[in-house]
Design brief:
alpha/beta; Quinone Oxidoreductase, Chain A, domain 1; Rossmann fold; 2 domains; 7-stranded mixed sheet; 6-stranded parallel sheet
Length: 327
């Protein structure tokens, strides 16, 4: 029986414990497709899971890693055959179902999406759940009719995974992007992705006004809390904000004023249980609207042994761009 290496998180009296273990296929959970995992990544959510800083993992012991890409090893699902290149995001993987920090993964075939040409599986994980979520945010803005001619589009948490991909995609689509970050030393990096200008995130840490000066035609927010509340108060009449994260917190200290006095729209973006048709479209769009050369430039590769260290760094805000874990 095939043996493989994995990260396993166990519950302890003092919290949780991270260990590197050797497992076999019999240790995997139920599913009708087994995937030879080639790459995973470290998203902010993975950082919370591995460090125990957030209640992400809800079943122990568990292999973390909320996404992976690889090649189908075996399948009893009619949609998939050995050799197919696949990517997975969400569906509780890395939370209640064994995830991507392992050489093998077994999951229901309905959770999988085909890796689009010309992407490699490494490209798919350079994008990862963060980049796929960024694409869902862009699609949400487009669905609400946001156009480049409408004005500036703000991206918060700009140097992170969601922010980096959102900037690259929006810029390629012709939008004028303003990047908000707490790391102004990354300004050259953000402008290299396509940001027209970079501003300090401190501008959004101030007390929230019901309505502030209108500045943004639209926004992609991965931060939440006071930042999102201030962004809403500064959004133009009939503008749209796509919200997908909670790096600053889950609270939202806002009022109804932006919604009823300016017609601002707040669109929630859920990447975990997003319908399959929308997932497929998001990955198709990424293959077209994301410059793969730029993607590779904002990514770096690490080994499985590096994941605990990277997890701590991403929670502490020390990671820029994307990290690909080579299995």
């Amino acid at each position: 029986m095939t043996r493989f290496r994995a990260i396993q998180v166990n519950k302890t009296d003092s919290g949780q414990e991270v260990a590197f273990v050797d497992l076999t296929e019999s240790d995997l959970m139920d599913g009708d497709v087994t995937v030879a995992v080639e790459h995973s990544t470290v998203n902010y959510k993975d950082g919370l899971a591995v460090t125990g800083k957030g209640p992400i993992i809800r079943k122990f012991p568990l292999i973390p890693g909320i996404d992976f890409a690889g090649t189908v090893a075996s399948s009893s699902n009619a949609e998939w055959k050995p050799g197919d290149r696949v990517v997975l995001n969400g569906w509780g993987v890395g939370e209640t179902h064994h995830g991507g920090y392992a050489g093998l993964a077994r999951v229901p075939g309905d959770w999988l999406v085909r890796v689009p040409e010309p992407m490699t599986t490494a490209d798919a994980m350079a994008i990862g759940t963060a980049g796929y979520t960024a694409m869902l945010c862009v699609m949400a803005l487009e669905h609400e009719g946001v156009k480049p001619s409408d004005g500036d589009v703000l991206v918060t948490g700009a140097a992170g995974g969601v922010g980096s991909i959102a900037i690259a995609v929006l810029a390629k689509l012709g939008f004028k992007v303003v990047a908000s970050t707490g790391r102004l030393e990354e300004s050259d990096y953000l402008k290299g992705l396509g940001a027209a200008s970079v501003i300090d995130r401190k501008e959004f840490d101030t007390p929230v006004k019901p309505l502030a000066r209108a500045r943004w035609a639209a926004a992609v927010d991965a931060v939440g809390s006071v930042t999102l509340a201030n962004v809403l108060s500064q959004t133009n009449p009939e503008g749209t904000v796509a919200a997908c994260g909670l790096a600053q917190g889950m609270d939202l200290p806002t009022s109804v004023a932006p919604f009823i006095l300016r017609g601002v729209k707040l669109i929630g973006v859920n990447s975990v249980t997003c319908p399959k048709a929308r997932r497929i479209e998001a990955w198709r769009r990424l293959s077209v609207d994301l410059d793969l050369a730029k993607l590779r430039g904002l990514s770096r590769h690490v080994k499985l042994d590096d994941v605990p260290r990277i997890a701590a760094d991403i929670v502490a805000g020390r990671i820029r761009g994307r990290v690909v874990v080579d299995l």
